[in-house]
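Retro notes, item 3 of 5
We never archived the inputs for the S-adenosylmethionine complex last cycle. Fixing that now. Sequence and ligand:
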Amino acid sequence: MTANLVTIKCFREFIYRTIIISMNPTSHTQYSHAVRNNYDRLSRIYDLISGGTERNLIRETISTLNIAGTGNYLDIGCGTGTGLVELAKKYPSAKNVVGIDISMGMCKKAVQKITKQKLRPPLFSVCQANGFSLPFRSAKFDLVFMSFTFELIPDDLFQLLCSEVLRVLKLSGVYLTLNINVSKSRNPIFALYKWGHDNYPRLIDCRPVDSCMILKTFGFEIISTQTFNLWGIPVASVSASKDKK
Ligand SMILES: C[S@@+](CC[C@H](N)C(=O)[O-])C[C@H]1O[C@@H](n2cnc3c(N)ncnc32)[C@H](O)[C@@H]1O
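Structure as it came back at the time:
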């Protein structure tokens, strides 16, 4: 009897996850649930499948930052902690470098990475949290960084994300995104990537987005943009500040 109940519950959960959440992750909770599950699974192999080129782009983007070195810095969707380590190298006198990720699996990997690098709390910390509801006071951060995470956010949730980033940023703060960008490029690798995303969105979950346009729409002013080529896939880093107009 108990075993039957468990089977029915498991079956219901399976249907819920595969059909409702995976096929239609449009609302805040559905998206969060699907992404958390996916990255909890991927966390064990994430550093193996995400290439050195991605790490180089994160390093290069952070190295071009031109903001004071003694502030508070936040990495949303910090993953296994690559951005945190680069922020630590760039800003050794930082007050606070915080990584948040929705996936506990990724948070654990980030903690391992920063511990290996001897980056100790309270200066460096990682916590499981959602970018749509940041557990920080308003106007705390000088920098909010996001690498290869902006392009996971569903269109109808950009406003929510941007309003949270605007809230936690200082007036003079910078929002720096690094993402796969929309492009008219006919590069066959890019075409294959887009085909992969359209057909296997759970496996190839990052989609090209127009980060400049999204940031301008939701309350930011663009400071600068940089474009990169990741094996034929266009990537852009965009730094933006609060639109003061
Ligand atoms: C493609 S990985 C990139 C990880 C890391 N930033 C990097 O560049 O190596 C995307 C990460 O964003 C996290 N993520 C996605 N949506 C999020 C959200 N709403 N709040 C917090 N983390 C989120 C995922 O769990 C995952 O770890």
